[in-house]
Amino acid sequence: MSTYLRSPIEFVRGDGVRVWDSDGNEYLDFFAGLSVSNLGHCHPEIVAAIREQAGLLAGSSNLFYSEPALRLSERLSETSIGGRVFLCNTGTEASECAIKIARKHAHRRGVDRPEVVSLDGGFHGRTIGALSATPRLANEELFGPLPAGFRGVPRDDAEALRGAIGPNTAAVMIEPVQGEAGIFPIADAVLRAAREACDEHGALLIFDEVQAGMGRTGTLWAYEQTGVTPDVMTAAKALGGGLPVGAVVARGEADVLEPGDHGSTFAGGPIAARAALKALELAGDPELLASVREQGERLATGLAALDGVDSVRSRGLMAALVLADGIEAAAVRDAALSNGLVTNVPGPSTIRLLPPLTITAADVDEALDKLGRAIAAGR
Ligand SMILES: *Cc1c(COP(=O)(O)O)cnc(C)c1O
């Protein structure tokens, strides 16, 4: 189905921060499969883990124990907010699970009509539940009737958020750095307001770390830099090291799911779990995280100095540049692609960069040069 607007290029091979197309052209990949290949393409240790597990046991069932899934869950819990873990296959499924947790938790407190509050610009996925928590895309005319129990509030307004949280609130669901919207870090004051109001009313705070997690912002999880700890955290994208893996971590009172409440056939399958375990181990390396912060600074500074760039928003290696009036982002992206640089366009005048976390200063400089020339060509 024609659900994607595709560039007329087929990538056939990747190695580290580079990919090659079917004509043999080489590209510096500053999109990383939408923040999936955070450790670079075909990281040898991830490839080895996948290969080994594929020859041992490819599929299992969640009705039996599986060491890779248990180890992954344990490590996820230990390296994030603590608590218990549900494994799934995608980010949108992680959102669905988080919404079910929030609703069950609310019903336990005697809330009849629980509501999930989310921020404008946030993205939580495309299934009907996750979509309903994504105000920008929750189009009633196209996909209605959408389920009741969701409410969107402005992104940067702590008072509006406080006002929207009350006795019926099951949860507030926030993407701490909004990725799909074009890299908008949520102000700490808004996150603190959410935490306080949730505590006051007994609601859960959910952070969607599907895009911002796994080292992308310079700490393993984005929440670590905010001073606010959620009750529930979701992860996916880079978590699988290239394979489809999602996860939900729920701590304390949020640990409500019991046998029969939720499940998924492929979730936590041995191959995906082995890949994720390795990816999580590699992404947590303090040296790598320090490099993300350092190269992130270099990238942001370099972008801001480019001709034709109006402003830059970034955290770690999640960056967006807003082009000056009259420059089309799509034209710049296409010119960059011709120069051998893969980027992405989340809005008409915005370019998004999500390079592998393993990039060097030389890679950043090369990307800045290619992008600078692409902007000049796109004018
Ligand atoms: C991509 C994304 C999702 C959805 O993940 P899928 O794996 O595409 O289902 C959810 N939340 C955020 C923040 C994302 O970036």
Characterise this structure.
The protein has 379 residues and is of the alpha/beta class. 36% of the residues lie in helices and 20% in strands. The chain is built from 12 helices and 17 strands. It has helices spanning 32-35, 44-54, 67-79, 91-108, 128-132, 140-143, 158-164, 188-201, 270-283, 286-304, 329-338, 361-378; strands at residues 11-15, 18-21, 26-29, 84-88, 115-119, 150-153, 169-174, 177-178, 184-185, 204-208, 232-235, 246-250, 309-315, 318-323, 341-342, 344-347, 350-353. The protein has a 7-stranded mixed beta sheet, with helices on both faces. The chain has a 4-stranded mixed beta sheet with strand order 1-2-3-15. Strands 13-14-17-16 form a 4-stranded antiparallel beta sheet, with helices on one face. A hairpin with a 4-residue loop joins strand 2 and strand 3 (26-29). Helix 3 runs parallel beside helix 9 (270-283) and helix 7 runs parallel beside helix 8. The longest helix is centred in the last third of the chain and has 19 residues, at 286-304. The protein is globular. The two termini are 33 Å apart.
Set out the fold topology.
Blueprint lengths: L10 E5 L2 E4 L4 E4 L2 H4 L8 H11 L12 H13 L4 E5 L2 H18 L6 E5 L8 H5 L7 H4 L6 E4 L4 H7 L4 E6 L2 E2 L5 E2 L2 H14 L2 E5 L23 E4 L10 E5 L19 H14 L2 H19 L4 E7 L2 E6 L5 H10 L2 E2 L1 E4 L2 E4 L7 H18 L1
Parallel strand pairs: 3-15, 5-6, 5-7, 7-10, 10-11
Antiparallel strand pairs: 1-2, 2-3, 4-12, 8-9, 11-12, 13-14, 14-17, 16-17
Helix pairs in contact: 2-9, 3-9, 7-8, 10-12, 11-12
Bound molecules: pyridoxal-5'-phosphate.
